[in-house]
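>> Question from a student workshop board

For tomorrow's exercise we were told to take the sequence and the ligand below, predict the bound structure, and bring the output to class. My setup keeps failing. Could a helper post the expected result so I can at least see what it should look like? The ligand is G3I.
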Amino acid sequence: MKLTSKSVALVPIIVTVATAAIGATLIAPPAANAASTLGAAAAQSGRYYGTAVAASKLGDSTYSNILRTEFNMVTAENEMKWDATEPNRGQFNYSNGDRILNTAVGNGSRVRGHALLWYQQEPGWAQRMEGSDLRQAMMNHVTQVATHYKGKIYAWDVVNEAFADGNSGGRRDSNLQRTGNDWIEAAFRAARAADPAAKLCYNDYNTDGINAKSTGVYNMVRDFKSRGVPIDCVGFQAHLTNNAPSDMRQNLQRFADLGVDVQITELDIAGSNQANAYADVTRACLAVTRCTGITVWGIRDNDSWRTGENPLLFTNSGAKKAAYNSVLAALNSADPGTTTTTTTTTTTTTTSNDPGTGGCTATVSLNQWNEGFVATIKVTAGSSALSGWTVTTTLSSATVTGSWSANRSGNSGTVNWTNVDYNASVPAGGSTEFGFQGSGSGSGLNPTCAAR
Ligand code: G3I
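>> Workshop helper replied:
Here is what the output should look like for this input. Compare the format with yours to find the bug.
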């Protein structure tokens, strides 16, 4: 919302309060015409349900029957990776990748391409390379593989797992990263040039909830979108144990709000709460319009890379598990005309001090649910550029549990937020955003902005 008043300097003005209730009932009964397979159930809301596939298992009739009947998206578990497709520099081998693709197409499924660049499963020759020689080999690999599969891939994981675990929010060290920080955007540009029809995704793990790592990815995606780097989607692997992160939906939504699709790309869940957790992940995706589909990382428990953890939807003998039934029920509950499962209130409150010359305004967009919220704060410069800014918020009945793109003074009461290095400069009339997650109520934040 644009502010027009210039007459009352430094006086807080409440400009707009708009409140919309989204969904308010508990689990809907299955639709009368509930679908009986995962793919068909997901398709009712325009989504897909996929699985990772291993070429070596396609001859197993139990495996291939479940694949054909239940799933409508396929990811090659290993066969489109760098070590499989370019075992020697400049010599490409697509035999197993093509087998999977042709099987999927024969079944009426689409294909997610996985993965053009990943620091693991590099062929030995690439592992031994560094610098500009490696950069050239990387870009050639992206171009060649994306060209081979041109027009046949729904979405490519262009780059996989480039961010570090832990609290840094930064990139993971690898020989790919050491070729220069721009390697990810260079890969996305090369992929777009080779296959303009494929959606181009960044994919990672431990990014399923709001945390330092997912915020690092979020900042990269936001930067890419602002500079026109071609990115269309973000994959959240969701290798989980017992529970989905409580803020998974909010995390998916904040990425979607950047203008990218989001997808659950490698789902598997170990532990005794498996069936509930699978339903929670399903509902998190269904609640986000731009969450276009879910892929599980294998079919039967003994197909999983997590040996002995039984994290998938089918038993070793191919029987449906309780987790399967809970996913199917959740997908069927999203049938148009039925209801959603949580109570959420989205409130957009715009509060400002008049920027005057050299000042700034702060507005907040609040996504509040029962026990917490995500606040996104937009800082807009007045008629002069900013070289730094401070936003003050009031958290009278809330505690900040995580934040991104700003430094903060505390976590409750009066909280001051100051720019970080990369968003200190805001041109006249321009804007930047930061955000935070909190427990409690986010109403009455009343952000005010001052130039530093
Ligand atoms: O094919 C060879 C076989 O010939 C050999 O005898 C055997 C001996 O170890 O190895 C076989 O290759 C294995 C391959 O899976 C196929 O089974 C590799 O050793 C093994 O490392 C490889 O593991 C894969 C792993 O990525 C590699 O890091 C898993 O199958 C695959 O599920 C896993 O998938 C990754 C995603 O790509 C990215 N996100 C995490 C996910 C789980 O780690």
